[in-house]
Amino acid sequence: MRSGHVSGHAQIFASALASLALCWSAPALAGGETFQPDSVPIWSARTTALGSIAFDNDPAGRDTGDTMLAACKGLQGEQMSHEYGKVPSWALKGQLYICEAYKGWAKHKPGSGECKLLQQGLDFLGHANPATDPAEVVKAVALATSTGNTLLSAMRSRKHAC
Fold first, then answer.
1. Contact assessment for residue 144 and residue 68, using Cβ atoms and an 8 Å cutoff
2. Confidence class for position 134, pLDDT limits 50, 70, 90
3. Do 102 and 70 sit in the same domain of this protein?
4. Are 60 and 68 in contact (CB under 8 A)?
5. Which among 20, 50, 95, 154 is least surrounded, fewest beta carbons within 10 Å?
6. Dihedral sign for Cα atoms in the order 108, 111, 113, 114
7. Are residues 27 and 54 in the same domain?
8. pLDDT by residue (tens digit) across 33-65?
9. Are residues 38 and 25 part of one domain?
10. E strand residue ranges, the chain
């Protein structure tokens, strides 16, 4: 009789662990992370800023650094206070990776690290889906992606370490 009681506890414990594992991976399993309506304008404005950096006649030059830094200023605080949990993880990661690349670009001669970060950010933004994401999001992603690809092309054409 006692062994049945222990077995029951083991089953409850195993079920609880399975439930926790399912909860932790549910967003990934569901594939249905979506933007909360109040987060769309905030996220889209920031992503549009990332895509609106001024090249000052030289996309691969350092003269774009001030604009890059300005586009990224306050990003982490903004994500924590306004967006965390309200936008898909791909959207948050895309912004963060692009800003890390921009910060490196602004502080020193860009190299392979910045190119990889930028490419990773663009890859994350590539998860935007015109069929399911708000039009404002899709438009901001298109601008940021175009700008990012222009930067990468300029770096590659100048034989930088991309």
1. no
2. very high
3. yes
4. no
5. 20
6. positive
7. no
8. 888 888 899 999 999 999 988 665 555 555 567
9. no
10. none
Q: Tokens 């921009």 appear where?
A: 102
Q: Residue 162 domain-assigned?
A: no
- Tokens describing residue 141: 């992603």
Contact 83, 43 (CB under 8 A): yes
Can you read off the two tokens belonging to residue 43? 């996220």
* Residue ranges making up the domain that contains 62: 32-157
* Tokens standing for residue 94: 């895309």
Q: Are residues 47 and 13 in the same domain?
A: no
What is the total count of domains within the chain? 2
Q: Do 77 and 39 lie in a common domain?
A: yes
Q: Are 39 and 70 in contact (CB under 8 A)?
A: no
Asked if residue 102 lies in contact with residue 68, where contact means CB atoms within 8 angstroms, the answer is yes
